[in-house]
Amino acid sequence: MDDRIAALADQLLLIERELRVQGWWDDVAPSAEALSSVEPFSVDTLDFHQWLQWIFLTRMKQILEHNLPLPNASGILEMAEMVYAERPLESLGLRTALKKFDQLIVDAR
To answer: YqcC-like domain spans which residues (predicted)?
Structure first.
């Protein structure tokens, strides 16, 4: 297995861990309608943490498990910085994990 794939998988686990630590992990999935948004980050139907859990993590795990092409870019940290601007200390662990994910995607090119 490519070392980058293993590093990305580990990073996804760290992102999930941070969501759980902060209490931003939901036990119940949003509606199918909410999950089918076509807006970036599903801003019209989901909170950012919901998008991370139900869209981002799910898709990235599928990409890694099925050896699909990795995204060419990732700007998730930028969105997180906007969303959590009022909670910089509370969100530090998550933003750090997302920054590392973004960098791993850039390095994978």
So the answer is: 8-104
Q: What's the domain count of the chain?
A: 1
Task: Count CB atoms within 10 A of the CB of residue 98.
Answer: 25
- Distance from C-alpha of 65 to C-alpha of 87, rounded to nearest angstrom: 33
CATH of residue 55: 1.20.1440.40
On whether the CB atoms of residues 53 and 98 are closer than 8 A, the answer is no
DSSP structural state of residue 24? -
Q: What is the dihedral of CA 93, 96, 25, 69, to 10 degrees?
A: -160
Dump pLDDT digits (tens) for 41-66.
999 999 999 999 999 999 999 999 99
